[in-house]
Structures are given as C-alpha cells and as structure tokens.
Amino acid sequence: xxxxxxxxxxxxxxxxxxxxxxxxxxxxxxxxxxxxxxxxxxxxxxxxxxxxxxxxxxxxxxxxxxxxxxxxxxxxxxxxxxxxxxxxxxxxxxxxxxxxxxxxxxxxxxxxxxxxxxxxxxxxxxxxxxxxxxxxxxxxxxxxxxxxxxxxxxxxxxxxxxxxxxxxxxxxxxxxxxxxxxxxxxxxxxxxxxxxxxxxxxxxxxxxxxxxxxxxxxxxxxxxxxxxxxxxxxxxxxxxxxxxxxxxxxxxxxxxxxxxxxxxxxxxxxxxxxxxxxxxxxxxxxxxxxxxxxxxxxxxxxxxxxxxxxxxxxxxxxxxxxxxxxxxxxxxxxxxxxxxxxxxxxxxxxxxxxxxxxxxxxxxxxxxxxxxxxxxxxxxxxxxxxxxxxxxxxxxxxxxxxxxxxxxxxxxxxxxxxxxxxxxxxxxxxxxxxxxxxxxxxxxxxxxxxxxxxxxxxxxxxxxxxxxxxxxxxxxxxxxxxxxxxxxxxxxxxxxxxxx
Length: 500
Fold this sequence. Notes:
This protein is an alpha/beta fold.
C-alpha cells in the first residue's frame, strides 16, 4: 500500500526537482530537495535505532533550523508522531508535554540542553526518555545511518503531529493533527495564496507554532519552493535577508511588521521582490498598514487556530481596505459558521473541514467539549458574518491574550499567582499595547495589610512559566467584579484599566 502521508512529499520532490533549493539557512547555506530527502531518510533510521516505531512520539526542542525539518519528515515517513515544543517554555512546562505526549525521545539543540536535561529528569527519573543533541550525538548518528525506506500504509487519517496549545484549565492540550489535516491545510494555502514553485518564503516565526508550520513551511515544501529558515527574528537581519535572497513571501504578526518598519534600514532596503505578505494573530494597526502601503505593499490577513492546522479564513490583500477589520472568508476547502442565539448577530465561531483536528491526545473530555457530533470545532471565539460572508471576530470567550504573536491563557498564570499566600483573588487580563498587541496585567486582591509589587510577582513566576506569560503590571483592588455565579467579569476589568 502506498504511503500517502506528508512523509512521502520529500521522496516525490527529490524525484521531480532534486536540485531545486528547499532550504536556505545560516549565512546562506543551501539544502536541495535531494539532500533534504536523504537526511530525512537517515533520521528515519536513527529513530528506528532508538526503538521508535510507528505510532510512537518523538519531541523536538530547538530554534528554526534544517534539523527541525529533517526530524519532522523523518518521523512522518515511518509513521512516528512529531511533537514540537515551544523554546520559551521552562523545564516544568517541557516535562509536562513530554509526559502527556508519551514521547520516548527528544531531539534538541545546544541552547536547549539545560532545559531538556532538567525536564527529562523531572519526567522520567529512571531515564526512559532518550535525548539527542543536534551538533553532537545526533549528527554522528545521522551520518552513520543508512537511509530507511518509507513505511507503506500510512494514510491521511493517521496522526502526524501533536501541537500543544494552552487550555483554559491551565494545562496545555495536545491537538492531534493528522497527515490529512496538514495536507488539506497546505492545499488551502496553495489555492488561496497562489503559492508557486519560484516563491522564496522567509520563515521568521518559530516552527513550533501552527501558523509558521502550517501556513509557511509545509505548503512551501509541498509546492517545491524555497524556505529561508531564521533561528530568531531580528528586524534588521530580516530586511537584509529579503533583499539578499529576493524573498517573495513573508508571514508574521503585527509586531513583526511594525519592528521592521521602524528599523533604520527600512527606507533603504530593496523590498521589490515581496509579493505576498500575510499577517495573523490580531488585526494590522492602521499605522503599520500605511507604512507598508507607502512602499507599494499590502497585506493578506487571516484567522485560525492550532486545531485547524491552522487556517480557517483568509482575507486577500485586495480586500484589506474594503473589508477593514474582517479576517476574511473561509479557506477554499474549509467551512466556517457563526452559531448565535435567536435574534443575535454575534455568536460562537465554529470551523469544519478536512484540516480540522479529530481531537486532543489522551483527552476525550476536552475533545468532546471542543467538537460537535457532526465535526464542527468550537473555537470559543465570538464573531459575526456580514452579508458577503466575511467574518469579523468580536471577542474571545476563552479570554486568551495574544502578546507579540504568543498565546497566553490567563488560567495557567492565575493558578500560579494564587500560590502566593497573601493573594486572595486574581484575574489576568490583556491590555492593549502599541508594540506587542496586548500585554498581560494581573488584577489582584490581597489579605489586609499586605502588598505585592510587579517585581515580586515576576520573581515568584520566573522559572515556573515562560517569561512572556508573566504579567507586566500588578494592580491591587479591593474586590474583583463578579457575576451572580461568582465568575470574575473580565470585560469590566478590561474596560476599567484599558487606557482611553
């Protein structure tokens, strides 16, 4: 039986366009499709040598680099499930993901070595999780390995990737994305973005994020185009790479584009190659839109979630001004609806299609809550559709905060803050910020006669959660506004503390 998973893509690409450049990284090093296919096949053998078989999970912790792609496709071609981990997480957070996913091996780079060592110790004191460091033992193992043939019989319904997304209960959930989910999402991008084999995409967002992986890397490699991998975002270097490599495609969040437009090299950089700019995470501020329009550039925008691999809607650049504030219409192979109460125009945004997950790893309760019996994913976001079918996002039921493109779920942070003995109540809310989109604030009530400063709270949270999740300000109030059922009315707090 034929392998129909994403792991078959590189084999086909090595056959049809072996000398085409798949990846550019570092100081301009290139990797052809033939080379990438061979390296991935060697990684399949390395996984087998570690006793990793179809259905097992292998984790990856590291910045954007060729090894990420090699391990992803090396795993996919033999039915192993790939679990990328956010590099900004602390050791306890990494340990939870390793444990919850059941990963038996973690591949990591040197910068993540200390976190991995601590996480593996916390997860498996007996040493049941193996670790391979890129640039060290991993490179030796790959060089010595004989390329493994792809495993037949992998179908589109088989799991390919588990992406962890923080949940409102404070614990992250592993969204299982199948080979079919990732394939159909890539089809959506090819159709709606009109991606071609001559495109050069600059990947500046971390590949452990669904947007960078699903809307950037995978469609690019499926089409046989070129991905320029950047380990971390630096606005000046990004501008330089656009000019040097004649980049045609760029994806990011509003903060990304703002930092580039504010960089001293902005006016003197040749941006004439850019043709496809995509922005997600939150609406593009008018001042950023105008800065790019002044250079003859316009944005396409979209709305999505990890569970949709991640694309749900797409707003073409031609409609940016005409449909200001909208996140677009459903992707080509995806359905979107708004489920509202009778007489209401605003309701919950729900998504269905072959790109939507079938559930969360090892969490049937969360799966049942998130998916309707007929396959609609309940986003937890509120929105409305205009007469032309364009979606407008109104609010977030889950109170998620988006800061610099990173998702922050208040429940996780609140739970840790309540560990302070003097805190009697807390609500973490997002406050608008010109540079980051939103920043988290902690609104707290305290025991009489006690105090809590922002620095004290940061010291308490540092090392327990990623630093981007730590509130940037602490406000002490006499009481938190609550509903009749006792839930904190965060909308009231946002109205109260958002600068006018």
